[in-house]
Design brief:
2 copies of one chain form a homodimer. By secondary structure, chain A is α+β, with helices and mostly antiparallel strands. Helix content of chain A is about 35%, strand content about 20%. Chain A has 2 domains: about 140 residues, Sandwich (Jelly Rolls), CATH 2.60.120.10; about 90 residues, Orthogonal Bundle (Arc Repressor Mutant, subunit A). Chain A binds a DNA duplex through helix 7.
DNA sequence: CGCAGACTTGAAGATTATCAACCACCGTGG
DNA sequence: CCACGGTGGTTGATAATCTTCAAGTCTGCG
């Protein structure tokens, strides 16, 4: 990929910190995306070659495998999300695995670095992306520390809804989601068995239903209330902050193509 | 502060991602630091004015107050650490509180932005700092999710040791630490009472002693083993990654002034 | 059919939280 | 000087939450 295309890529107005899904949909990057079937590890823990991945479609998880055999899912990036590897994680300590059919753009660190050197304002934009990912991680950290399994699960299902909404991948009452109960457990720091009971309770209390790959909100207001959910940390209305630098030169001209639930 | 001084500030070779403590010690920034007594909230949750803080000395905590009255400590930045507010957190959702006597540099977002616009390679450097903070958050997330209270506490005390080591603030066998048991609980997602018992166990098993503001390693190898501690995520030997861009122009000329424990 | 993966359920056990005291230290005001 | 209150730490008893073990069910698919 040439530097020119990368610049063009960023100039086409990004939504806040994720990319406009329309932009990712077209193959404007000038490189053809790679396709992977579900359950493919396409970036193995320990690989330290710097790269950038941009998810075109499908579900991916960033996971960490501990010495005791446990797995921790750090995040589940969605279509339009940008991943910096390995700067994001503990230095090549994470793996990327497809959870569904996915197609991703992969850009070598060398090319990316060159482009950044030439067009330094990109750097500000990308630090904005990292800051957002940090913000999401911080939210999950407090969730895991200070919310019980029920609230935590509710909170996460709401988060996924918001993020998918930004990618235009929601229906009126919910969204489809290829995560297994085991995956969900590894995201939330619980066991699959416990998640199972929690999901049952959420269903029985008529809050959300997570079944057969479909999440359906039964009473979103009650759910928001239970979880104490406030979507601000997702930065979908990022209007303040240091990170306007650079990015401010390329003001957003058309509104992002996304739906959002009313809170 | 002029842009010139900010540039100079960054040119004086930073250690990886924290600043050389020697650099922060001198008042080279050209601004006088502010001093706060312990337990002062010097940046309140909800304040969205963008700013950068650099900690000159003392202990600070970044905390979040939830609606249910709980507090979650996101991180405990130490001398030499750089804080971007509010881009770091969920958008002004966090507070900064001094845990000891502290002195901090405060730079307005406006000044900072101007400097970044002029010298875009700064941006790469600072995104490197954010990436490191993210990496620390990710490590704590997995710690909280997949390590029990004993391992988690051990891990955190080791982390603090490493980070203080980089700031030159450790003795041969440990370090001094103003955190109360309650603070520690809020970092690790436990209750003060439980932390108390955990600390007792760590002491009785002759691993670490946390008492009277002093942390003393009784058997660091055993502790490392218990916690499964690997310091890589702290990025003290950051030699790879996208973030060499820009920063690579200002190669490190003198080695960082820091001590590190042997593992 | 028969197998495999995902999900479900029950029972028992470990971990952590909650409630309720109590101690020890320290600075303050009488 | 001592009584006093406040904060931080300690301990025990009990309860809630979550995990582990064990045994299923359901469903899609070769």
């Amino acid at each position: 990929m040439s530097e020119q295309t990368l610049l063009q890529f960023v100039k086409s107005p990004p939504i806040c910190v994720s990319l406009s899904i329309a932009d990712v949909d077209s193959d404007f990057l000038g490189i053809t995306p790679k396709h992977y079937p579900p359950d493919t590890v396409f970036d193995r823990q320990g690989d330290t070659r710097p790269r950038v991945f941009i998810i075109k479609s499908g579900w991916v998880c960033i996971s960490r495998h501990l010495s005791n055999g446990n797995r921790q899912i750090i995040d589940v990036p969605l279509a339009g999300d940008v991943l910096f590897i390995p700067s994001l994680d503990g230095g090549g300590a994470n793996s990327l695995t497809s959870l569904s059919e996915v197609s991703v753009f992969e850009i070598s660190g060398q090319v990316f670095r060159k482009a950044l050197d030439r067009h330094p304002m990109l750097s500000a934009l990308f630090s904005r992306i990292i800051a957002r990912q940090h913000s999401i991680a911080v939210e999950r950290l407090t969730s895991v520390c200070r919310r019980n399994a029920l609230e935590r699960t509710a909170h996460y299902l709401l988060e996924l809804g918001e993020r998918l909404g930004a990618a235009g991948a929601i229906t009126e009452h919910g969204y489809s989601c290829p995560l297994t109960q085991h995956d969900l457990a590894d995201v939330l720091g619980l066991t699959q068995i416990h998640i199972n009971r929690i999901l049952r309770e959420l269903r029985e209390r008529e809050l959300v239903s997570f079944r057969a790959g479909t999440v359906e909100f039964l009473s979103r207001p009650k759910l928001v209330n239970l979880a104490g959910f406030e979507g601000g940390y997702l930065h979908y209305n990022w209007t303040y902050g240091l990170h306007q630098i650079g990015a401010s030169r390329q003001a957003s001209h058309h509104p992002p193509a996304r739906k959002t639930f009313k809170t």
